[in-house]
Amino acid sequence: MSNLSIRRAKISDIPSIHSIEKKSFERPWSFTSFLFELKNPFSFFYVLEKDEKIAGYFIIWDMGEEFHLANIAVHPEERGKGYARSILEHIVEMAKKENKKKIRLEVRVSNKRAISIYEKFGFEKNGIIKGYYGNEDGIEFVYRLKGKL
């Protein structure tokens, strides 16, 4: 049985995180963007470790009454194992502790796998954002925390 844990990201994690980012997205965030997020006071930047190796990461921005899930990815070799669900469960627990009303995110209309994960988890489509990714529309999803609206 593998050992999974979630912890705050550190500067030494950035090369592994950026490698996963480049394998996961057509338009990846820059190395510098991840360095900025470590210092951003409104950012919660975490990694998912499996047996002490980074298997995924996520970045949440604190937007007052809500969290904005700015970035999330699981290493391609680790997908399909429920890690994204574990990350989302962790984010919901964080949101409850911080008294947030909802969690918002955007996803490419073509990212069927992510859309399926978010819908199964309980996120609701909140609209289409034309040209959000430049060459592609985005879908805005919202997860409403129970008892908060």
Describe the structure.
With 149 residues, this protein is an alpha+beta fold. The protein has a single domain (4-144), classed as Aminopeptidase (3-Layer(aba) Sandwich), CATH 3.40.630. The chain has helices spanning 14-24, 31-39, 83-97, 112-121, and strands spanning 4-8, 43-50, 53-62, 66-74, 102-108, 124-129, 138-144. It has a seven-stranded mixed beta sheet with strand order 1-2-3-4-5-7-6, sandwiched between helices. A hairpin with an 8-residue loop joins strand 6 and strand 7.
Characteristics:
4 helices, globular, seven-stranded mixed β-sheet, Aminopeptidase, alpha+beta, 30% helix
Task: Furnish the topology, listing elements before pairings.
Elements: E1 4-8, H1 14-24, H2 31-39, E2 43-50, E3 53-62, E4 66-74, H3 83-97, E5 102-108, H4 112-121, E6 124-129, E7 138-144
Parallel strand pairs: 4-5
Antiparallel strand pairs: 1-2, 2-3, 3-4, 5-7, 6-7
Task: Give a quick summary of the entry.
The chain has 149 residues and is an alpha+beta fold. It is 30% helix and 35% strand. It has a single domain, classed as 3-Layer(aba) Sandwich (Aminopeptidase), CATH 3.40.630.30.
